[in-house]
Specification:
The protein has seven helices and five strands. It starts with a strand and ends in a 7-residue tail after the last helix. The longest helix has 14 residues. By secondary structure, it is α/β, with parallel strands linked by helices. It has a five-stranded parallel β-sheet with strand order 3-2-1-4-5, with helices on both faces. It has one domain: Rossmann fold (3-Layer(aba) Sandwich).
Length: 141
């Protein structure tokens, strides 16, 4: 099973995201990647990875990723948030994080947690997600 991973980074965290994805490019190369607009562009400019880009976060990209979460169609989200900057689309961010909790989708909001989750994914510790994909709760209810 190919892991589906979403990558989101606030403006002041985009460089950190690019550095992180570059460091783990061989791991991410085995995944199907999704990202909000500029983050996805920056990743593709700096790596050999292919990324399906959604709209910019404030323009609906967070909600587009949220739609994938709602249908349990993602396996991991790395969302490098800027906790020191107010975000005009904060309600969208909170809704996305809530959906991750509802669906049990691991989400990292800082680089330390992101590294732990990506290393676990690389070891195969996410095999339980195969069962989730096989029996998507709520889809046929």
């Amino acid at each position: 099973m190919t892991m589906k991973v979403a990558l989101i980074a606030h403006d002041r965290k985009k460089e950190e995201m690019v550095n992180f994805v570059t460091a783990y490019e061989t791991v991410f190369a085995k995944c199907q990647l999704f990202a909000t607009g500029t983050t996805g562009t920056r990743i593709m400019e700096n790596t050999d990875l292919s990324v399906h880009r959604f709209m910019s976060g404030p323009l609906g990209g967070d909600q587009q990723i949220g739609a994938m979460v709602a249908t349990n169609d993602l396996d991991l989200i790395v969302f490098l948030r800027d906790p020191l900057m107010a975000q005009p689309h904060e309600p969208d961010i909170i809704a996305l994080l809530r959906l991750c909790d509802v669906q049990g989708i691991p989400v990292a909001t800082n680089i330390a947690t992101a590294e732990i989750l990506v290393k676990a994914m690389d070891r195969g510790d996410f095999a339980w997600r195969e069962l989730v994909h096989k029996y998507k709760p709520g889809v046929d209810e």
